[in-house]
Amino acid sequence: MTATYTFDVFSSLDGYGAASGDWTGYWGKQGPQLLDHRLAQHAGEQRMVLGANTYRAFAQMMAESTDESDVRDPWVTRMRTLPTIVVSNTLQEPLDWPDATLAKGDAVDVVARLKEESDVPLRSHGSLSMNRALMAAGLVDRLQVTVFPVVTGRTGLDRIFEGAADFDLELLESRTLDDRIQELVYRPTPH
User: Fold this and answer.
1) Structural Rg of the chain based on CA atoms
2) How many folded domains does the chain comprise?
3) What average pLDDT does the structure give for the chain?
4) Is residue 61 classed as helix, strand or coil in its secondary structure?
5) Cis, peptide link before residue 94, omega less than 30° from 0
6) Closest-CA residue to 166 (of 131, 137, 191)
7) How far is the C-alpha of 163 from the C-alpha of 121, rounded, in Å?
8) Which residues span the domain enclosing 124?
């Protein structure tokens, strides 16, 4: 039996994973339901899979934060303590991340092997280019998109599906958090 792989991503309504300017984390729209739900999603046994760029961004964000900062939400702290595979041909160990292992090679090969070998679900947050390649290879079982109620047409960064293949999406779950944030979970299949 193969492990389930979830590509988990935050998005503005217009498909950006981040923004510049005066936007803060979560585009300033987080609330208690979102934060509690995220913590619950990371409570069970699972393994995180991160690409090099996302790992670098998370590691820098954590290094520059304090225990009191919003960056260290309970779910982010929990995510950071989960066993993590960082897929990279450029990084070197040791990684500045508890319980992280570096996996060199092509992400498609690494994740295909992990899906066969893992006895717990796999989850990746962000890691856009890696996850686009994994979707194209048919390795993403669940696409979880958390849509924040903002349009960042001028300040948007990191188009989530820029250059991605075409997919049909079967809606598996949906929920509204804090009366404004949509979480949509899909099963992607190549179109």
Assistant:
1) 16
2) 1
3) 95
4) helix
5) yes
6) 191
7) 27
8) 5-190
Dihedral sign for Cα 114, 3, 78, 26, please: positive
At 190, give phi and psi (nearest 5°): -55, 140
CA distance 102 to 51: 10
Q: Specify whether the CB–CB gap between 103 and 85 falls below 8 A.
A: yes
The secondary structure of residue 95, as a DSSP letter, is P
Long-range contacts of 169-173 (CB under 8 A, 24+ apart): 169/143, 172/142
pLDDT tens for 68-120 read 777 788 999 899 999 999 999 999 999 999 999 999 999 999 999 999 999 99
Determine the straight-line distance between the first and last CA of the chain, rounded to whole angstroms: 25
**Distances in Å between the alpha carbon of 93 and those of 64, 104, 129?**
20, 11, 22
User: What is the value of pTM for the model shown?
Assistant: 0.95
CB atoms within 10 A of CB 14: 12
Q: Phi-psi category of 168—alpha, beta or left, where left has phi over 0 and alpha has psi -120 to 50?
A: beta
SS3 117: helix
Q: What is the CATH number of the domain that holds 18?
A: 3.40.430.10
Under DSSP, is residue 72 helix (H, G, I), strand (E, B) or coil? helix
Give the separation between CA 58 and CA 158, rounded to whole angstroms: 15
